[in-house]
From TrEMBL:
Record has Hydrolase as a keyword: yes
Domain Amidohydrolase as annotated: residue spans: 47-403
Keywords of the record: Hydrolase, Metal-binding
Matching PANTHER family: CYTOSINE DEAMINASE
GO BP annotations listed: cytosine catabolic process
Record-given protein name: Cytosine deaminase
InterPro entries documented for this protein: Amidohydro_3, Metal-dep_hydrolase_composite, Metal_Hydrolase, Metallo-hydrolase_Enzymes
Length: 407
C-alpha cells in the first residue's frame, strides 16, 4: 500500500551543509527549512536520518523492448554491436504485445525499486508490424504512477538502409513516440548516414519533438556523424532538445580534430549520454593490444560545460548479458573507465545519474525546490562519496508525496 507523507526530516541535500526539513503538500515540495538539530519523526514524516536526499535517478538510455531477451534465440558470442543487431533481428519476428509488455514492465519495476523515476527507452521501429512500439506506447500509460517514460522511435536497422525506413519513422511519430532517433554509423554509406541525420532533424523540428541519436557507436575514428548532428542542432537552434548517445568514436578521434569539434559542440549546446558498461563490453572488439575503452570523452565534455549523463543501455539483451537496474553500478563503472575518481569528480558524481540525465531528457519540473512535484529518493550515505562507497539500495523513493519504496 502506498501512503503519502507531509515532510521529510533530518535530510541532507547535495552541495549544502547541515540538516533540512522538507515539507510536502498536495504532492509538491514546500519551503525547505534548515534544522538546528536532528529531531523525532511525526506519524506522517519520513525520517531521512541524516542521509542524502536527491532528486530521483534518471535512466536516460535503455532498450526496454529487448530487455531480458539475452540468449534468445541465440547468444551473442562475439560480443560485438553487429552480432547483437543480428541476434535481435532473429528475435524480432517472435515479438508479441504480451511478450513486450511483460518484459518491459519487469524492467521498469526493477528500476522503480532502485529509485529511478524517469526513463527514456529506444524502441526499434525497423519492423513493419511496429509490435514493440505499440506495446511500449501502452506501457507508457500503464506505468505512469511509477515512472515517466519517454519513447524514442529508434531505427535499429537504419532509416535509409531499411525498406520503408522513412515511412516507419513517420508512422511511429504519428502513433505517439516522444523522441526521434537515428543510427547514422549503421547506414550503408557515409552519405546515407549524413542524409539520415539531416532528415531526422527536420522531422523532429517539424513536429516539435526531442531528438536522441545513437551516434558513432563504433571505434572507427572516421565515423564523424556527431559534427553533422551538432551543426544541424546549431542551425535549427535546437541544442537543448538534442541528445547524442554513445559517441564512442570520439574516444578514437585525434586531438586536433577534437579541438575543432568542441568549438561546434559548445556552440550547439547539445546533450551527451555515455553508457559505460555497454561500451566497455561492445567496443574495443576489433583491437588487439593496446585495447581501447570505447567511451566518449566524458570529463573533457563536462569541463567544456556540456551536460553528460550515464545510462545502462541494456538489461540482459542481445548486446549485454548483465544489468540489474542499479544506477550506482553504472556510475561506479563509468567513473573508473573515464578516470574520474578524483575527489572533485566524486563530489559531483551524482549529477551524472540525476540532473544531467534530466537535462538530456529535457525535463522541466525536476529537482528539490519549492513548488515542484515532490519526487525524490533517500540514498544510503551522507555524501556522494559514502553513497558511492556503499552502493546500497535506495532507502526510499517518493513520487508526488507518495512513498513508492521504503526500506
Ligand atoms: N542497439 C544499438 O544499436 N546499440 C546498443 N548499444 C543497443 C542496441 C543496446
Ligand atoms: Fe542504445
Amino acid at each position: 500500500m502506498q501512503h503519502t507523507i507531509n515532510a521529510i526530516i533530518n535530510a541532507r541535500l547535495p552541495g549544502r551543509e547541515g540538516l533540512f526539513h522538507i515539507p510536502i503538500s498536495q504532492g509538491c515540495f514546500g519551503q525547505i527549512q534548515p534544522q538546528q538539530a536532528s529531531c523525532d519523526a511525526g506519524p506522517a514524516d519520513l525520517d531521512a536520518r541524516g542521509n542524502l536526499v536527491s532528486p530521483p535517478f534518471v535512466e536516460p538510455h535503455i532498450h526496454l523492448d529487448a530487455a531480458f531477451t539475452a540468449g534468445e534465440p541465440r547468444w551473442n558470442q562475439s560480443g560485438t554491436l553487429f552480432e547483437g543487431i543480428e541476434c535481435w533481428a532473429d528475435r524480432k519476428p517472435l515479438l508479441s504485445r504480451e511478450d513486450v509488455i511483460g518484459r518491459a514492465e519487469r524492467a521498469l519495476h526493477l528500476f522503480a525499486d532502485n529509485g529511478i523515476q524517469h526513463v527514456r527507452t529506444h524502441v526499434d521501429v525497423t519492423d513493419p508490424s511496429l509490435t514493440a512500439l505499440n506495446a511500449m506506447l501502452e506501457v507508457r500509460e500503464r506505468v505512469a504512477e511509477l515512472v515517466d517514460l519517454q519513447i524514442v522511435a529508434f531505427p535499429q536497422e537504419g532509416i535509409c538502409s531499411f525498406p520503408h525506413g522513412h515511412e516507419l519513422m513517420e508512422e511511429a511519430i504519428r502513433l505517439g513516440a516522444d523522441v526521434v532517433g537515428g543510427i547514422p554509423h549503421f547506414e550503408y554509406t557515409r552519405d546515407d548516414g549524413v542524409a539520415s541525420v539531416r532528415w531526422l532533424m527536420e522531422l523532429a523540428h517539424k513536429h516539435d519533438l526531442l531528438v536522441d541519436v545513437h551516434c558513432d557507436e563504433i571505434d572507427d575514428p572516421q565515423s564523424r556523424f556527431l559534427e553533422v548532428l551538432a551543426a544541424e542542432a546549431l542551425r535549427l537552434d535546437y541544442g537543448a532538445r538534442v541528445t547524442a548517445s554513445h559517441t564512442c568514436a570520439m574516444g578514437s578521434y585525434n586531438d586536433a580534430y577534437c579541438s575543432r569539434l568542441f568549438r561546434l559542440l559548445t556552440r550547439s549546446g547539445l546533450r551527451f549520454l555515455s553508457m559505460p558498461t555497454e561500451s566497455l563490453h561492445l567496443q574495443g572488439r576489433f583491437d588487439s593490444y593496446p585495447k581501447r575503452r570505447g567511451l566518449t570523452r566524458v570529463p573533457e565534455l563536462l569541463e567544456a560545460g556540456l551536460k553528460v549523463a550515464f545510462g545502462q543501455d541494456s538489461i540482459r539483451d542481445p548486446w549485454y548479458p548483465l544489468g540489474n537496474g542499479n544506477m550506482l553500478r553504472t556510475l561506479d563503472v563509468g567513473l573508473h573507465a573515464c578516470h574520474m575518481l578524483g575527489m572533485d569528480w566524486i563530489d559531483s558524481c551524482l549529477e551524472l545519474i540525476t540532473s544531467n540525465g534530466a537535462a538530456a531528457l529535457n525535463l522541466q519540473n525536476y529537482g528539490i525546490e519549492p513548488g515542484l512535484p515532490a519526487r525524490c529518493i533517500v540514498l544510503h550515505g551522507s555524501s556522494p562519496y559514502e553513497v558511492l562507497l556503499e552502493q546500497k539500495p535506495v532507502l526510499a523513493s517518493i513520487r508526488d508525496g507518495r512513498v513508492l519504496v521504503s526500506r
